[in-house]
MIR domain-containing protein
Amino acid sequence: MVHVLCFMGDRMASEAQRLEEIRRAIARHNADWRAGANRLTRLSAEARRRRLGFVPGPHDPSLAEREAVALRNQQSPTTDSPDSRAALGVPTAYDLRNVDGQNYITPVRDQGDCGSCVAFGTLAAAEGTYRVALKNPNLEIDYSEAHLFHCHARREGRTCGNGWWVDRALEAVKNSGVVDERCCPYTAGAQNCPALCDSSPSRLTRIENWRRYVTAASMKLWLCSEGPLIACLTVYEDFFAYTTGAYRHVWGEEVGGHCVCVVGYDDEGGYWICKNSWGEDWGERGFFRVRYGAVGIDAEMWTVEGIRSPFAVRDAAFVSQSLPTAMVPGQGYDVAVTLRNTGIQTWTRGSNYRLGSQNPQDNMVWGLGRVDVPHRVPTWGEATFAFRVTAPAQLPAHHQWRMVQDGVEWFGGTTPDVLVEASGVSVRHGATLRVRHAMTWANLHSHPYVYGHPGSSGQQQVTCYDGADDNDLWIVRGPDGTPSDHRVGQQVSHGDLIRLEHMATRRNLHSHGGVPSPVTGQQEVTCFGEGGQGDGNDTWRVEIEGGGTWQAGRRIRLIHVATGHALHSHRGHAHPDWTMGQQEVTCFAGRDANDLWFASDFRARDALFVAQSVPTTMVRGQSYDVTVTMCNVGTETWTAADSHRLGSQSPQDNQTWGPARVELPRTVAPGEHVTFAFRVTAPAAAGVSHFQWRMLREGAEWFGALSARTPIRVYTTTEDATVPDATGLARNAAGNLIRDAELVPRFTGAQGARVEVGSQEPGAGTKVRRGGTVTLRMVHTD
């Protein structure tokens, strides 16, 4: 039986005296551990007591009863005999800190001046279990003890002063989950539930189940196959002075209960290996060993099962990038891409983490396909990959990257796809392009959803979108009130007034004073109008940094002419409904870097229809001279040698008019107009045929806008038609009779099922021009 010396208390005995008495007791009881001064031995008795926090539940055995159970189990030959362990395949020693040289236990924490040990022991076991389950000792896992204790335990009335119970902590993790440490950092001391990070609902880790074990053999089997366990012990005064060895109580009175994480055992030494939560400067660098059956350590232990984590092992998020958006082929350029490690494994060179080229994957367009990670990048850490590229001979070209662990997998999202243009490419009136936000690289975007926030206009939403789709495409038009062919092909210069027409919905980029934006309350930006026609609030002034013409790589501001506000966006401002979770776009009265934009994704091949000349009536089989004028608003020069041609449409490749292709009459540079003059032959069949054309590059693609779809009425002869007699006929029969005469019926008068032609104008037998109108007045037959 342990002899307990009289303890006079902190106020009557110095630290040195206590340590000397503990050392004498260790020697007297031939105990195999050492005591020494440390940060905890210098605290007052009350402060040391606050480093504990395990309290047996109201229906659980007391600390003394737990000690008796543990001692009885240790002395029983049936609970942990060599034969029972051998039958289960349990080794005689195991340490999760060194499994074939790998450490599956997360770093030691410090609970500080708070009785929160249950939370620390529980989450230490969960972290180690997840590493073991994934067979990955390098996972950066750190669950939030603050969330578990200051939030979940607090709701049950538990505080730093009265501790908690293990089973309740496990139930909280199972049913409610805990966030990661970064989302809710731990600070010691009594407090209410701290504020969680904005993304906390998507960062909750839960367990599927938990178990309680009461035999040493089952505890060891779990530990060497599934992971660490949670255990509780009685803390006596001598335990605070522990420095090394296999602890057992030899001196001092009971202070309270404490919860720890069991990470190993050794049958030859007769001890458990435990991870404490008093910092790395206590014990064996934060760990301690304790004798089997001592201080109630193995009266019972708990396990966690089935970690359900929201985090991928490997994941990455784009932060920023810096690169020219216009380059000279063959020249070198410095590029920087910054990514955040949002997975739970550290990126290192030794583990083959690299930045890899995309679009297409593993391409060597820029002179290299991999960039080594520059340094060790832990979870939530950032890495800036700084490297030099050589512009390819053929521009434009896609510049995009993604993280890869070579030999394992590609992971995380791609960086924004940047279509790098050749230097000198100009933005032209009539061109279709993307407009990108210079700070976030997101695309100016709209979609057929309307605002509905308080005070909104109810018009079509405009956002910034991290991805890329057809809802990012805009056509550069002249200011409000100008025709669609205003200055087509001409360069856009500093100070020019323009509209941006959303290609998918044919509505114009628009703003209006006095209407708040959905998130920040700045001036709302919408898409407005129909078919490209809106009002004066659609007009914007182009302000180019440094003046001159708007070219690839040059940053601009778009100033709303009616209000003087600048088109603006900002990271981190979004709404699930009123911006569809995308980045808010506003108009801003001030000026800052969030007002800057640049043109992107110029179309190499693009054309805008300008005009066409074609008769609207023809006689079958006869030939007619027609013209179609197109403007080259792309970046590629049209040449006959490269098979740029005009091709028939409605339907595509038809030979209704004779030729299905018209050769290019000359070379057409970007910004130039070209008129195709050619001869067509009216089709043999009378009726209506449609005349429409579009540009193409044979063997590559059709591109650009179609010409106007013009209906051409084809007649059998040029002679006047004779009006037939339709009186007395029903509506359908009368209409067919008039059409067969190559005339157009127009119905007036009575409507309904029982009607007939009462009279007609002009009358039967009259000669009229083919295609003329015959008015049929309908009357009821009753």
The two ends are 122 Å apart (CA to CA).
